[in-house]
């Protein structure tokens, strides 16, 4: 049943991709070039806040670079701040008393890299600061540039999960779905690593020369 689900998804995504221009993410991460297929991530967000998440995703080893935009009315071309998820200015930006609240936008930049096979360890970068410039945005596409700094954080597989092989099958399925272009169905958060716990803090992760050009289907407009 699981195999059939993966194959069906791969066929659906593949057919859709043939009819659309190629989507791409590129950047320099700590001095190393990164390039991946760009994807729009379908993640629901309750309340009045609107949300657009895009990412570049590679598989084996898994390497993902995410950009998430939070806004109230309409996402427009412009330059916006990249913040930490718990930055106090996020609350200030969307405060009901703020004069420019209707046009408020902020972004998160996150990174995750699999450092041991089958999701046994990860080196992540948690959003901290930077800027992102949207040069063009429509109901079915977005493109622009970005740069920023993320705080390094490791994740390690829990001992019992490693000894028992728990989650191995799920890891294989997640990789297959991501490889087929369906990464939006795998995770709700870039740091959501099943059966892991946070390890050591590490050095900052610096992203420069970032570009994105992501296109999705007409029946899948941004929320």
Based on the model shown, name its key terms.
alpha+beta; 4 helices; 223 residues; globular; 8-stranded antiparallel barrel; signal
What would you note in describing this structure?
This protein is α+β, with helices and mostly antiparallel strands. 18% of the residues lie in helices and 48% in strands. An 8-stranded antiparallel β-barrel has the order 1-2-3-4-6-7-8-9. A hairpin with a 4-residue loop joins strand 3 and strand 4. The two termini are 31 Å apart.
Please give a quick description of this structure:
This protein is α+β, with helices and mostly antiparallel strands and 223 residues long. It has helices spanning 2-18, 88-93, 159-164, 168-179, and strands at residues 24-29, 32-41, 50-58, 63-71, 78-83, 105-116, 121-138, 141-157, 196-215.
What's the topology here?
Elements: H1 2-18, E1 24-29, E2 32-41, E3 50-58, E4 63-71, E5 78-83, H2 88-93, E6 105-116, E7 121-138, E8 141-157, H3 159-164, H4 168-179, E9 196-215
Antiparallel strand pairs: 1-2, 1-9, 2-3, 3-4, 4-6, 5-7, 6-7, 7-8, 8-9
Helix pairs in contact: 1-4
Signal peptide: 1-19
Keywords: Signal
Largest sheet: 8 strands, antiparallel, barrel
Instruction: Give the structural class.
Output: alpha+beta
Element-level helix/strand string: HEEEEEHEEEHHE
Strand fraction equals over 45%
**Helix residue percentage:** 10-25%
Question: Cα-atom Rg, whole angstroms?
Answer: 18 Å
Distance between the termini: 31 Å
**Order of neighbouring strands in the sheet with most strands:** 1-2-3-4-6-7-8-9
Total individual domains: 1
Mean pLDDT: 78
Shape: globular
- Compute the number of helices: 4
Q: Which runs of at least 5 residues are low in confidence (pLDDT < 50)?
A: 1-19, 161-166
In total, the number of strands is 9
